[in-house]
Specification:
The complex is a heterodimer of chains A (308) and B (353).
Chain A (H helix, E strand, L loop, with lengths): L6 H6 L5 H37 L5 H6 L3 E2 L4 E2 L2 H32 L2 H16 L2 H20 L9 H25 L3 H9 L4 H12 L1 H17 L2 H6 L17 H10 L7 H31 L5
Antiparallel strand pairs in A: 1-2
Chain B lengths: L2 H21 L45 E6 L4 H13 L5 E6 L2 H10 L5 E4 L5 H8 L7 E10 L1 E5 L7 E2 L1 H8 L18 E4 L5 H12 L7 H9 L4 E3 L3 H9 L4 E5 L1 H6 L4 E3 L1 E2 L6 H6 L5 E9 H6 L1 H21 L6 H14 L2
Helix pairs in contact in B: 2-12, 3-4, 6-7, 12-13
Classes of the chains: A mainly alpha (308), B alpha/beta (353).
Chain lengths: 308, 353
Amino acid sequence: MQIAQNPLVNKLRKKPRIGDNLIQAVLLICGIISVLTTIGIVFELGKESLLFFKMPGVTLKGFLTGTSWQPAIGEFGILPLLTSTLITTFFAMLIALPLGLGAAIFLSEYASPKARKTLKPALEVLAGIPTVVYGYFALTVMTPFLRALFGSDTVQIYNMLSAGLVMGIMILPLVSSMSEDALHAVPRSLREAAFGLGATRFETAVKVVVPAALSGIIAAFIIGISRAVGETMIVAIAAGSGSAFTFNPLNAAETMTGYIARISGGDVAYDTPEYNSIFAIGMFLFLTTLALNLVSRRIAARFREVYE
Amino acid sequence: MSAKRMLVFVVIIGSIVLSACSGGAASAPTAAPVATEAVAEQPTEAAEELVPVDEGGLPEVDPGALTGEIYTAGSSTVGPLTEAVIEQFINEGFTGQIKNDIIGSGAGFERFCVSGETDVANASRAIKSSEVESCAQLTPARTPIEFRVGTDAIAVVVSKDNTFATDITLAELAMLFTTAENWSDVRAEWPNEPIQRFTPGTDSGTFDFFVEVVIQKPQKLEKIEDAKALALSASNLQTSEDDNVLVQGVEGSPYAIGYFGFAYYQEQAANLHALSIDGVAPSGETAESGDYVLARPLFIYSDAEIMKAKPQVAAFINYYLTYVNDLIGEVGYFPASAEALDQAKQAWLDAMQ
């Protein structure tokens, strides 16, 4: 018997559904566009950075180890900008990580549903405030507060501490929200088992739930760090507008992102030292956040717990 | 549900919806440099009719009859003055679009002569020959015409809390902005605190002028680049094209020092104190007579072809030259001499032939 000619079997063959295929193609294109954009960005950054490193007097070693950044007179050491970025990030994480995790633990383990309903949106409003507003908050509220605390002579009007602390406040909702998702994903059975053995709420939260959610929490921390490294407006307004190689957070020092914002805010001619330096720093920032993302994925995968 | 519970429910849902809409932005890193905007000095006599001080033979301008686009960019010093003229021009009925960007004299010439984007360049220094060459190489070529619009005295300022510095010599001024680390390095009786410097950046005409007059000429350096290198390698240096950033910086500490156009000093005179140089304080008279060493001319530049092709640009420059002396006092600078202004008006008439 010829099965293929049996009309009943023909009806059961898979029909081409044009509408479905079309939608699938459109969604695939959406995904491909983001990949292409990333490739385009990397290509542009790489091309212009190459121009930078081809300039006379610029070497990779000098770029990575030089302690003075003044492109107008030919000094291209990235260390001042890098230390400023790291110091502001450090202070941001000092605020965002403990407070974010604490808020997440409270929301997940202790809060009643009513408290949760009010507190969670309040945190997210904090995330919605524009960063330029945060920048002026740092300059007009945080800096005078720090000056009242430490004395106007020790705290300069543009300083890294003020910008770092306000950045921490901005990143806090991000860390809290991601940590809370991780904590929520831990099954109730773990908690109930701990209660059943006589553990207090605190012991359960800290010794059972947090270690179980560690992978998500670490991922949240690293996202917070890369957000802080890439933040521009707050540091451009409050941290300083001149590069300075200093470890004192009460001094003014420009960060990598602040420098890019300042130079591109003016007018830079193509293929001048300043113009090319923007792309070199942009490439450096891109590679830093890429590395952080890869580390985050590695760690998250390593600590991940799979539940039945 | 009772009305109260309904209200609470709506408020909570509303705040969740609002935060959900804005919460989506939290994960996208922000990196949007904000273009600096001009600080507008508001002339208080906005509603009054301004009578031109000197008709000077320029044809009457009726802003209400004009329309179109005018794009000016350049010096942060000339910026507020141009803003005041623009404000008046629009108040008298101009219906078109006028854009004024504050990016520094160098950057203003860049946009006028290299990318050809602007119609008028504001500058606190004269155009360089290299910039004139770039203009000539544009298609269509541009020949910059210089219009002198005023005089500025660069104020070297310290905070009101600085009681020890009042009068300095030119040599001390150079040391304060190049080699000295602490105030006591310049004069032994001054405090042993680090000098916090706030200066315009390399795109700024103010920077170019200061470096030339204070560092290059007295020290007889061959090239301006050497003088710039000295200025830029100073310790504790914060630079910005936005003079408001500098004002804020200087106000912040008794050990801070900075320099910028007189208008920015005058606006904040309550919190700042301008130093006298070699016994001469900055003012209208000392600037005009040349006694104050940091007096310099303010210019706008345009091109004859642009003025003919865009009548609104020609009319704007005409209006500028006619009314600038009325507005310049409010803004905080000093009028150019009558001869200089007449020369500018003659240049306008020649361009429109």
